[in-house]
Design goal:
GO terms for molecular function: proteasome binding. This is Proteasome assembly chaperone 1. Pfam families: PAC1 (PF16094). The chain contains seven helices and eight strands. By secondary structure, the protein is an alpha/beta fold. The protein has an eight-stranded mixed β-sheet with strand order 1-3-4-5-2-6-8-7, with helices on both faces. Strand 3 (68-74) and strand 4 form a beta hairpin. Helix 3 packs across helix 6. The longest helix is centred in the N-terminal third of the chain and has 11 residues, at 52-62. The model is unreliable at 1-17, 21-26 and 231-236 (pLDDT under 50).
Length: 236
């Protein structure tokens, strides 16, 4: 499976963790799932959106008048991840950016009953182009790469070019795809790579193409303000 999917890989030595990271590992991380409406019995498509850039796009262009039907509260955080119902059988989980790498596994475990009800899982994340570990010729300001489970529809697998080895993707989105593979569910992880530190009308095009493919109505996009984008946990 490691040949196909990005995994949450912790450093081999604690020398790579600072004191705050070590405290986070040792403490028990807990999430509380609170449904404001009844939990759906079946989900045709579950979209999981992660990182500040993807959240900004979803807030502005996707959610529109949709109200959250579930909150996933991270212990010690004032904010929470939320699930929105986009249509009768499509839902979107917007992950709180404060859910960091060390908490990703616990987050996936907390939403596993939701994942198990899904017929198709689409996980979306964002990385800086400096994290792409290959010699691809990528002149675009932004581009999408993807990984899919064996059970994913063929058309979905070919929507974006395959993320090549030896690239690694971590976080909730990667965890969702790993869950889908191990439980034989259809799923795709879409990774948006950016050269800059903001989304504009050009760099947002791969995201618009993905949501259009998923038949999600979109509002016009307006450029983001300058947001933080992690340039990577590079190997040393």
């Amino acid at each position: 499976m490691s040949e196909l999917f990005a995994e949450v890989v912790h450093p081999s030595s604690r020398a790579f963790w600072n004191e705050e990271d070590e405290s986070e590992i040792e403490d028990n991380v807990s999430f509380t799932v609170d449904w404001t409406e009844s939990s759906p019995e079946k989900i045709k498509t579950l979209i999981i959106a992660e990182t500040s850039f993807i959240k900004d796009f979803v807030d502005k262009c996707v959610l529109q008048d949709h109200k959250s039907i579930c909150s996933i509260k991270y212990s010690g955080s004032k904010e929470s991840s939320k699930i929105y119902q986009l249509s009768n059988d499509s839902f979107l989980c917007l992950v709180d950016p404060q859910v960091n790498l060390t908490a990703a596994g616990d987050f996936i475990e907390s939403i596993s009953p939701i994942l198990s009800k899904s017929e198709n899982i689409i996980a979306i994340t964002c990385n800086h182009v400096s994290q792409l570990k290959c010699g691809e010729n990528t002149p675009e300001f932004s581009f999408m790469r993807s990984l899919s489970t064996r059970a994913a529809p063929e058309g979905q697998k070919k929507l974006f070019p395959l993320l090549s080895q030896p690239n690694i993707v971590a976080g909730v989105a990667a965890g969702a795809l790993s869950y889908a593979e191990t439980t034989s569910l259809p799923g795709t992880l879409a990774i948006l790579y950016l050269e800059g530190f903001e989304l504009d009308s050009e760099s947002v095009e791969p995201l618009q193409a993905l949501f259009t493919h998923l038949s999600v109505p979109l509002k016009p996009f307006h450029a983001t303000s300058h947001l933080f984008l992690d340039k990577g946990n590079l190997y040393m």
